Amino acid sequence: MSPSGGVTRNTLRQQIADALRDEVLAGRLPPGREFTVKQIAEQYGVSATPVREALFDLSAQGLLVSDQHRGFQVREFTVADYRAMAEARVLVVEGLFRNPEGVAVRPEGLVSIRRRAAEAVRAAKGGDLDVLIGYDLRFWRELGQFVLNPYIADFLTRLRVQAWVFAVHRLRRDGMDEDVLWFGHEELVEAISRNDHDQVHAAMHSYYAHALAWADRLEARAGEGDAPGPSDSSDAAGASEAAEAGTAPEAAAAPEAAAAPEAPGPCA
Fold it and tell me: Where in the sequence does UniProt note compositional bias of the Low complexity kind (predicted)?
């Protein structure tokens, strides 16, 4: 695809960034996967400039690692990284709802958030990880619209995406169950709608406990030596096939149910 008409370079840059983020979240670009600007430009049929800009944007968001000589690599988050993400989210969200000046809840905005929560619960129970990721990211992003400080809202969204990047390969490998998934999103929305700080605190600590319990199990499996890494051969083969097939940036926008860049999510 080449930019034309009303499509500016910045729009193309965003389309490419969104498409690649979706590829990472879908597991088609596994952690550790390396690629160059030239490879991505050829895959999408665009010039190198918007691709380079998109890749640097994703690097700034913590999803890619750049190397002057080797190009770019999908970041491999560790269990320790994941623990830190969960802790940071809990601390920030709890702090926000203790400070009434930092959040402005709009009742009309809760309607769609409740719908995201219900649909994500349905996806989780049905074992549809792709749909779950899409609704979960939308859920947290829309909640973030109540946060008056845009830097905090952006930080929380980035943390959630990074947590899914950590989780997606492990969930595909191990499966999803109630020990991994957190089903408290609907309770969290209702607590926020009532301005019930105690219940917000309880919901976030439930999320944190699930996250830590999953991290403990992952570390125990790794210690036993029976847990393959997220970038195992089957993931790499799938990513290679996807790269050969190619996907145009404009085709990466999924229907609402599967849209990724957020309600029960993995403890992610």
Answer: 225-262
% of the chain at pLDDT higher than 90: 51
For CATH 1.10.10.10, the residue range(s) in the chain are 12-74
**12-74: CATH topology:** Arc Repressor Mutant, subunit A (1.10.10)
Question: Alpha-carbon distance 52 to 33, whole Å?
Answer: 17
Instruction: Please name the helix (run of DSSP H) or strand (run of DSSP E) that holds residue 53, with its range, or none.
Output: helix 48-60
Other Cβ atoms within 10 Å of 220 Cβ, number: 11
Architecture of domain 79-222: Up-down Bundle (1.20)
Do 91 and 102 form a contact (C-beta atoms < 8 A)? no
Strand partners, 64: 74
Q: Please give the model's pTM, rounded to 2 decimal places.
A: 0.77
165 in Cβ contact with 75 (< 8 Å): yes
Q: Please say if the pLDDT value at position 23 is more than 50.
A: yes
